[in-house]
Amino acid sequence: MKIGIPREIKAQEGRVALLPRHIKTLIEAGHTVYLEKDAGLLSAASNEDYVTAGAILVDTAAELFEQATLIVKVKEILEPEFALLRADHIIFTNIHAALDAEQLDALLTAKCLAISAENTHKFGSPNCPLAGEVGAFEAIRMTMAQNGGTGRHFMSHFGEPAAKAVVIGLGNVGQGSLRTLVPFGIRTVALDIYEGARKSIAMQYHNAPVTVGDVSELEDHIYDADMIINCVLWPKHRKDHLIPRSMLKKLKRGACIVDVSCDTAGAIETSRATSWADPEYTVDGIRHFVVDNIPGSVPVTASAGYGEAILPKILAIADKGAEQAIREDEWLAKGLTCIGGELILEEAGIYQNKPFTPLCDWVKRSV
Predict the structure, then answer these.
(1) Is 80 exposed, middle or buried (0-12, 13-18, 19+ CB in 10 A)?
(2) pLDDT digits over 209-233, tens only?
(3) Residue 148 has what pLDDT?
(4) Residues 6+ apart with CB under 8 A from 324
(5) CATH code of the region 128-296
(6) Where do the Alanine dehydrogenase/pyridine nucleotide transhydrogenase N-terminal domain residues begin and end (predicted)?
(7) Distance, CA of 31 to CA of 251 (rounded, Å)
(8) Cα 201 from chain centre
(9) Three-class DSSP category at 45
């Protein structure tokens, strides 16, 4: 199969879908790989590295989309790429279709087969821990007085306690946040609805300044927190919030919210996506950091993890064809977003009030 790796055009996005070592595996399996020039530079992979691995360099995205059938990306398809889509394209990238009607409409209009990479990871995206780690680092930065924060040090000195953080959600993202916060000495409250997650964190950090509790205890902890880090993926159809706007006025002066999960009006009612170019905004005196591509700030590491995770899926699609690969892999099937102009992804259909075909019905029909 002809596989294309375009350069990411989202602002401040330095990742690339596959590194030269991943490309080499695909080529050794008999496939052809095209790379848009300079796609890997910010991930420490030069054009020469890709050529040595066997990739064919092209100068533009238009040329790459023209040559390749399977397009593999990190971030969503953006407006400049819409016109490049064809019905025979297989798109594999992080689409996040439910909250992006314009992109979804473009995919449906093109009648291509699109797979949302974010839904295909059995154990979570490898970039999730990185998002938690970097997100917590940003929260610490925002706590500094010159950045509008509370001015409390992340360590305890001279009788003053260390800064306090509340982490909501203890999955891969939340655990990443703890890995950043705890070694600094920050007093951390770790909350989750699942008893197993709470017990695991309590055991792991039994000698650290970490308080573990249920999410129902949130209001017992956030009003004196210096930083609040949300790591809960919120169902798009829900209308309630863990932190409604009414709570903001009760938070400590100078406190900040880092919403790593970045669900618009999700767990945090006042959340809306931002970019690295303009990462923060303020609502009712509380600064919000809601960058929707946090791992893009550490592209060397993030690209390595992403490529390692998706390579088996890309190889399966290239070897067997997308439809057969989807039928054989339930996790790849979970990512099927649309095919031939037909919407399959239930979450997007419900949230955007679009007609959709349930995945199980499509699978039965396609056999």
Answers:
(1) exposed
(2) 999 999 999 999 999 999 999 999 8
(3) 96
(4) none
(5) 3.40.50.720
(6) 4-131
(7) 55
(8) 23
(9) coil
3 touches 31 (CB < 8 A): yes
Assess whether pLDDT exceeds 90 at residue 95.
yes
Are the C-beta atoms of 341 and 103 separated by less than 8 Å?
no
The predicted-structure confidence for 109-157, as pLDDT tens digits, reads as follows: 999 999 999 999 999 899 999 999 999 999 999 999 999 999 999 999 9
51 is in an annotated binding site: no
Report the residue count for the chain: 367
Angle at 287 between CA 97 and CA 168, to 5 degrees: 60
pTM above 0.85, yes or no: yes
Domain 2-119+298-366, CATH among 3.40.50.720, 3.40.47.10, 3.20.20.70, 3.40.50.20: 3.40.50.720
Annotated ligand binding at 263? The verdict is no
Pair type for strands 286-289 and 280-283: antiparallel
Tokens of 230: 């949300």
